[in-house]
Amino acid sequence: MNFTQSILIVEDHDFQRRLLARILTALGAQGVLEAANGREALALIERGSAPALVVCDLDMPEMDGMAFIRNLGERLPDVPVIIASALDPALLGSVAKMADAYGVRLLGVLEKPVTRMHLAQLLAAGDGPRQPRAAPPAPRFPLAEIEAGIANHEFVPFFQPKLDMQTGAVVGAEALARWKHPAKGIVAPYGFILTLEQAGKINTLTFLMLEQAAHATRRLRAAGLEITVSVNLSTTSLADVTLADRVAGVVTGAGADPKHLVLEITETAAMTSLAPALENLTRLRMKGFGLSIDDYGTGFASLAQLARVPFTELKIDQGFVTGCGEHPTAHVIVEASLALAHGLKLRAVAEGIETQSDWDALKGMGCDMAQGYFMARPMDEATLLDFCGARGARQAARTQTGTPSRP
Ligand code: C2E
Ligand code: MG
Ligand code: MG
């Protein structure tokens, strides 16, 4: 931390403010600026003060910490902030997200009373390189280029394994669209799905993926792998009541059995154009397809809406799964989603398992299936076959030696 510039303390409580000033001086700060609330702090900044760091309370009269952070983000977005507050940790978490959304670099949150050790730890961490902001999203491609790629057979499914959490066996795979771009390499869905949806052209890709996934299902089963293959359906496709018959036609035409395929629909998707969506989903279910509610927790499905669609599976969104062992709020959401899934007799899938700790947390909560980078990334069909073969062999060895299964 650069201590040649002053540090600004924004705190309405005199004793706390003086305590912070003393600690910071003891830690080597050359100068300390003090403000009793956000408005005073802003006035200092407007008069030309450019502190190296701001230590800020949240609950203050006149201008509270949230408003001050917003203003700071507009004026001095590069000045790092430490929040010192006696508020509930759940509230502090949402303040941290808010600061990030306002472009403010939050070094950390300290519970009051602030100790010298905790402050020193945060300052030391702040000396590291500035955390890169989230990588800018990959570019979206123009519709004409995407359509030319489709016509040129450049779109293929990659398969990401789904594991049974009790046995560790591969029980399914999700087909995820990939564009083998002749110049750009493998392009992920962000680059083309939305463009196709907005142009009303998503079905071309959907049917291409379905057909290839159905052929893959047939081949995987012929190789002795009893797994289901999941395909993503767009919300927009469900508005057309002829969809279910066309989907079934493509799958049976490829020699696959609908009961070996699962169709994933995002939570919001199931809710728009409700009547035709229900007609399609019910018909698909009658034909034997599994129906999965994807990204559960990110949309606005009411429990009543969820119960009237004949889903067979619920996929908890990765936003709650990844790191849920360490985040109490995410943990509660995952637990509630699992209870809901099991109460409605749906199989629960956790997507976004990235670490052993995610796996342990989800398994401990009774989740049925898991998908995530910790076990495997999306891969081509040949690699999936090898992956399943290798796991099968390892599992057989474990069964013989009695070693418990691990992912
Ligand atoms: P989704 O259906 O929720 O698929 C899961 C996404 O999470 C995939 O991203 C997968 O690669 C990623 N993922 C899996 N495990 C992890 C993990 O541990 N950590 C992280 N950070 N990510 C993980 P992908 O392949 O980029 O697909 C993004 C979305 O694009 C999919 O989300 C789906 O909504 C859509 N999509 C993909 N293929 C198709 C398709 O053929 N048709 C339609 N309509 N949408 C598709
Ligand atoms: Mg999906
Ligand atoms: Mg998902």
What does this structure look like?
There is one protein chain. With 407 residues, this protein is an alpha/beta fold. The protein has two domains: 7-126, Rossmann fold; 143-401, Alpha-Beta Barrel (TIM Barrel), CATH 3.20.20. It has 15 helices and 14 strands. The chain has helices at residues 14-26, 38-46, 65-75, 89-101, 116-126, 143-151, 193-198, 202-222, 243-253, 274-286, 303-308, 318-321, 328-343, 356-364, 381-401, and strands spanning 7-10, 32-35, 53-56, 81-85, 106-111, 155-164, 170-181, 185-187, 228-233, 261-266, 290-296, 313-316, 347-351, 369-371. The strands form two sheets. The protein has an eight-stranded mixed β-barrel with strand order 6-7-9-10-11-12-13-14, surrounded by four helices. Strand 7 and strand 8 (185-187) form a beta hairpin. Helix 2 (38-46) packs parallel to helix 3 and helix 8 (202-222) runs parallel beside helix 9 (243-253). Residues 160, 176-177, 188-189, 193, 202, 205-206, 209, 232, 234, 264, 294-295, 318, 351-354, 371-373, 378 line the site of ligand C2E.
- What would you call the structural class? alpha/beta
The end-to-end distance, rounded to whole angstroms, is: 42 Å
The shape, in one word, is: elongated
Series of secondary-structure elements, N-terminal to C-terminal? EHEHEHEHEHHEEEHHEHEHEHEHHEHEH
Flag low-confidence runs: 128-136
Count of domains: 2
The order of strands across the largest sheet is 6-7-9-10-11-12-13-14
Strand share of the residues?
Answer: 15-25%
Query: Helix count?
Result: 15
